[in-house]
Amino acid sequence: MNYNFDQIIDRRGTNAIKYDKMDFFFGRHDLQPLWVADMDFATPSFILDALKQRLTHPILGYTKRPAGFFQSYIDWAQKRYNWTVSSDWLDFSPGVVGALAIAILSLTNEGDKIIIQPPVYPPFFNAVKGNNRQLVLNPLIKDEDGTYHMNFDQLEKLIDHKTKMILIANPHNPVGRVWSKETLEKLGELAIKHNLIILSDDIHADFTYPPHKYTPVISLNDDIAQQSIIVTSPSKTFNIAGLSTSIVIIPNKKFRQQFQKKMHDMHLFLGNIFGNIAFETAYRHGEAWLNELLSYLQGNIEFVKSYLQDNIPHIKTTTTEGTFLMWLDFSGTGLSHQQIKDHLINDAKLALNDGLSFGQNGEKHFRLNIATPRKNLETALEKLKIFS
Ligand SMILES: Cc1ncc(COP(=O)(O)O)c(C=O)c1O
């Protein structure tokens, strides 16, 4: 190991949402924060050094994206996913959720139906409803061993002439599925049959654990690629979410032009100096760091799983195939959702994400962020023992 993921870094007082907005969301400030999906590890030094280097020049005026910005992602996708991305398909966006909203605004009309599959990342709900599209829910189904699946039978029944888009997360936050090639192919066929756009949020793509592999929906075949858009970013992978820099991948020329026009009309295309530098540096130099990070996170996932099995078997986990998030099922405790929440906040003093914020089928579930030094997880699990 060349990097130290065990180092505990005090983030309080840096305006980190996870720490400094805890009071606002949980009504108290003395909780151990394991909620917001960023990591408690240092942003890698090669990125910090590149940012410091830029600061040796005293002017931070309007700045274009560096020539190698998009190429750094093309090379990353080729190397890590054996996926050839054409430079024509790529454009910038100032954050992933913003790009989802822009795609919705530019490619669908008011009143159109858009499908999401809860439990899912809460901003998906508002990206649809907040932009005056009709939200259609196709909840994931959970099997006996706690694995979630897309409900294809129901999905096809939900589609009508008003349905224009399905929004997915791959890997899926919060349940940790890395959607298989077969699942995405099935979805792609359905999208072609019904002329739906697949809008795929792949921000967690770099976090997959063997034997699971990330399959970009666009990589499946040309027909599916023409119906699909991917939004992605190095922001989770390298802990640079505060820099609001991401990209969209749109092989369909007409869709791309519509997206670009909306970005232009809203004057959102510029980006920022530091985001540009961090993005390119991450993809150019981040491989060794990421490999070490992934093995540390895998160790954390195994640690949580076996600790719960041995000490608090009432709390069940789903298999985290990807992401640094674990989806904990408290239904075996026999408590109501509100009782579980109260115990977590007021007795265990833990700040986890409330499962209900991911949809109704998140009841009695809470999301645990394991991207933190193992010592922090040990402390948290010890506190969770009140449920044993
Ligand atoms: C699935 C998913 N999409 C998007 C985001 C946030 O992306 P951004 O900060 O670039 O809008 C998150 C952050 O937790 C996420 O989990």
Features:
388 residues; alpha/beta; Aspartate Aminotransferase, domain 1; 2 domains; four-stranded antiparallel β-sheet; 14 helices; 39% helix; 14% strand; globular; binds pyridoxal-5'-phosphate
If you average the pLDDT, what whole number results? 97
What is the global morphology?
A: globular
Q: What fraction strand?
A: 5-15%
How far apart the termini lie comes to 35 Å
Order of helices and strands: HHEHHEHEHEEEHEHEHEEHHHEEHEEEH
Going across the biggest sheet, name each strand in turn.
2-10-9-8-7-3-4
The set of bound ligands, ions and cofactors reads: pyridoxal-5'-phosphate
**Number of E-type strands:** 15
Report the structural category: alpha/beta
CATH architecture designation of the largest domain: 3-Layer(aba) Sandwich
Number of helices: 14
Number of domains: 2
Description of the structure:
The relative contact order is 0.17. 39% of the residues lie in helices and 14% in strands. The chain has 14 helices and 15 strands. The protein has 2 domains: 17-44 and 287-387, Aspartate Aminotransferase, domain 1; 61-285, Type I PLP-dependent aspartate aminotransferase-like (Major domain) (Aspartate Aminotransferase, domain 2). It is an alpha/beta fold and 388 residues long. Helix 5 packs across helix 10 (253-265). Strands 2-10-9-8-7-3-4 form a 7-stranded mixed β-sheet, sandwiched between helices. Bound molecules: pyridoxal-5'-phosphate. The site of pyridoxal-5'-phosphate has 14 residues, from helix 5.
